[in-house]
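Priority: medium. Attachment 1 of 2:
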């Protein structure tokens, strides 16, 4: 199976390339700028047509939540128009598409976890542009799989876990929002799930929209506490966490207070349950420390 992965430097793209490399019958190759630029939809068809994939996994997106409030046109061009152009190319090539979306399509007012039957109601431009992308993908490519995920982290790129470890190297205490709740999700786990779904799509349905996030929910503040506890156990940097509210943090873009996702539909359809987020986080912290040249002893 030849998988075209849209997005070169993103966390899920890099995780997917790594995980696919361990499977002998899967070839995953990245496509990105300048050859394929989501902000320039005219580049999408030529890049995909020449690569002739068996499956397209679209991970590239405009993900700067606050910046999207200042440049909504670009956010929509990438997350909606670009996403739709990728799906149109998939349909022309007669191949399925797996499109990655976000928990920010919800307003966070629900008590408990969101499932796929809940109506989206995004609070910010980023979430609205991603929802528009979902609609464009579903309209352009009947054989689509839309995966909404949450709070993605990995050993790659820039993410919350790496930011916390960086802050701990210079601060004894950090202030983190404690009244927003979601599911931390390892990009490596998401990549594993995508590959399992890809194998199933080769046999036909199921298609549609699914939630795919780490098992278990937490707040940003408790997420940070576990990052520091894990790092400390491995001999790395750590800091104390002081709880603050989202109102105190005063981000430009409003964030939903609750974006817990239920992934039971995906587990039932594809036989894959995302691991517990703490377990996956420990492995990611160890790898980040090792990649930075630190000796990481085995935890007792």
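Attachment 2 of 2:
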């Amino acid at each position: 199976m030849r998988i075209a992965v849209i997005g070169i430097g993103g966390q899920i793209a890099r995780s997917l390339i790594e995980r696919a490399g361990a499977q002998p019958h899967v070839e995953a190759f990245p496509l990105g700028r300048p050859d394929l630029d989501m902000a320039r939809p005219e580049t999408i068809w030529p890049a995909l047509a020449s690569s002739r994939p068996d499956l397209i996994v679209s991970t590239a997106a405009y993900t700067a939540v606050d910046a999207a409030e200042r440049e909504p046109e670009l956010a929509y061009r990438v997350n909606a128009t670009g996403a739709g152009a990728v799906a149109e190319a998939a349909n022309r090539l007669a191949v399925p598409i797996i499109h990655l979306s976000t928990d920010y399509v919800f307003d966070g007012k629900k008590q408990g976890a969101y499932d796929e039957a809940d109506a989206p109601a995004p609070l910010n431009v980023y979430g609205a542009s991603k929802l528009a992308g979902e609609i464009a993908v579903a309209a352009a490519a009947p054989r689509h799989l839309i995966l909404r995920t949450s709070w993605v982290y990995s050993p790659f790129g820039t993410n919350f876990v790496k930011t916390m470890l960086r802050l701990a190297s210079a601060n004894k205490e950090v202030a983190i929002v404690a009244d927003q709740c979601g599911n931390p999700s390892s990009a490596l786990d998401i990549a594993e799930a995508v590959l399992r779904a890809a194998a199933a799509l080769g046999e036909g349905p199921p298609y549609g929209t699914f939630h795919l996030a780490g098992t278990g929910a937490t707040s940003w503040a408790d997420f940070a506490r576990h990052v520091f506890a894990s790092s400390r156990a491995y001999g790395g940097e750590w800091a104390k966490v002081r709880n603050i509210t989202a109102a105190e943090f005063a981000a430009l873009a409003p964030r939903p207070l609750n974006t817990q996702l239920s992934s039971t539909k995906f587990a039932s359809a594809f036989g894959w349950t995302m691991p517990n987020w703490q377990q996956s986080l420990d492995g990611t912290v160890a790898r980040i420390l090792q990649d930075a040249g630190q000796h990481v002893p085995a935890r007792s």
